[in-house]
Each structure stands twice: as C-alpha cells, then as structure tokens.
C-alpha cells in the first residue's frame, strides 16, 4: 500500500474498487493529510463512483482505519523481509530499523513526510479508534525489539526491556526528524547508534 502511485493490473484487469480506493487514500492521506482529503478527492483519484466507496467502507472514518491497518501490514511485510536475512537476534533488532528505512525510501508523491501512522494519529481526536491502531503498531514495534533483545540477553530480561524502550524512542525520534528533513539520513544514523548500543550489551 505504498504511496508510489504505481499500480499493477492482474491479468490485464483493473484492481477491485476497494484496492483502488485504499491506494488512492494512501497517496492522498500521506501527501495532503487526513482532514484535508475529502471523499470526492479519493473517489476521483481511484476512478470510482462515490457509491462504490460506501459499498466498501461505511464512512470516511472506516476508510481511515482501513488505511492505518494496511499501512501497519505493509510495514510488517518490510520487517519480515528484513528478518529473513537476519543471522540472529542482534540482526533482528536492526531489521526493525531497516524496515523503517525501507519505508522512508518509497517514492512518495510530495516527498517523505515521516511516519504516516503518526501523521494520521496527530489529526485524529483523542479516543478515536484510529489512534488505537497507531498505538498498537508502535507497541508491537517495541515488543519486536524486546523479543530479539530477550533472545540476545536470556538472563537479563529487565535490561532487555529497558533497552528495547530506549531503542524504540531512538527510532521514533529519528523518524520524526527524518520526516521534517524529508530524507532517511536520520534513520541511517539511528541504526548506527543502535548498533553501538547493541555492541555494548
């Protein structure tokens, strides 16, 4: 569900309306923001009638949640691809950083703007279900780091959890700065800093 704008037709047929709507929402929500993107904009970009949107999603809020879920799954797929090349728990920790860097490297329409999940959450009111989706994603990222560290430090579980939180904060800070600066340099630097932390364990 990347914002590259590149679509692939299967067997020469157009993708189903739901897929086209999600792809259009992904591009517009990331580039322009959730609040600034109306239903008409999404349906026009997806090339579907407005009724098609409501046949697939009960509301714009439902579409936003589907977008957040899809973005979470997209990141997980990047992480799993990196993890396949990992040679142990240390590499597993770095696979989390690499997955974020991979996400930053997508060809976004108006350039890289940081974490799309956090960007969306910042626009949603307190208590919105979409914010819960984003929180669950961030908690899962920290758990993944913690799981790798607990394998690396089997007799030091408290240190593993504390280090996981430290690295999760490092990653989030780097993502925020990278989004403001419009490139992935801060994520590369954060990975190098994480490597130094791991070397000291």
SSE series: HHHHHHHHH
The tally of strands reads 0
What is the residue-averaged pLDDT?
92
| Terminal-residue CA separation | 37 Å
Question: Radius of gyration in whole Å, from Cα?
Answer: 18 Å
Q: What form results from the Cα inertia axes?
A: elongated
Report the total helices: 9
> What structural class results from the helix and strand content?
mainly alpha
* Low-pLDDT sequence parts: 4-13
- What kind of sheet is the major sheet? none
Percentage of residues in helical conformation: over 70%
Strand residue content: under 5%
Structure description:
The protein has 201 residues and is mainly α. Helices cover 71% and strands 0% of the residues. It has helices at residues 17-32, 39-46, 50-56, 60-83, 89-104, 116-123, 129-152, 157-181, 185-199. Helix 4 (60-83) packs across helix 5, helix 5 (89-104) runs antiparallel to helix 7 and helix 5 (89-104) packs antiparallel against helix 9. The longest helix has 25 residues, at 157-181. It starts with 16 loop residues before the first helix and ends with a helix.
List keywords for this structure.
201 residues; mainly alpha; 9 helices
Task: Write a compact overview of the structure shown.
This protein has 201 residues and is mainly alpha-helical. It has helices at 17-32, 39-46, 50-56, 60-83, 89-104, 116-123, 129-152, 157-181, 185-199. The protein has 9 helices and no strands.
């Amino acid at each position: 569900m990347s914002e590259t704008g590149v679509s692939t037709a299967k067997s020469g047929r157009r993708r189903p309306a739901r897929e086209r709507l999600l792809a259009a929402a992904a591009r517009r929500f990331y580039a322009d923001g959730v609040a600034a993107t109306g239903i008409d904009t999404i349906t026009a970009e997806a090339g579907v009638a407005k009724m098609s949107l409501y046949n697939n999603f009960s509301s714009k809020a439902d579409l936003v949640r589907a977008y957040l879920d899809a973005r979470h799954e997209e990141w997980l797929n990047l992480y799993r691809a990196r993890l396949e090349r990992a040679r142990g728990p240390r590499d597993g920790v770095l696979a989390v950083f690499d997955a974020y860097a991979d996400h930053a490297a997508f060809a976004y329409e108006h350039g890289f703007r940081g974490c799309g999940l956090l960007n969306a959450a910042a626009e949603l009111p307190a208590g919105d279900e979409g914010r819960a989706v984003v929180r669950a994603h961030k908690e899962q990222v920290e758990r993944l780091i913690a799981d790798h560290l607990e394998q690396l430090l089997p007799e030091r579980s408290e240190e593993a959890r504390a280090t996981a939180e430290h690295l999760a904060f490092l990653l989030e800070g780097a993502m925020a700065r990278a989004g403001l600066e419009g490139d992935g340099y801060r994520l590369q630097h954060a990975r190098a800093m994480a490597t130094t932390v791991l070397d000291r364990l």
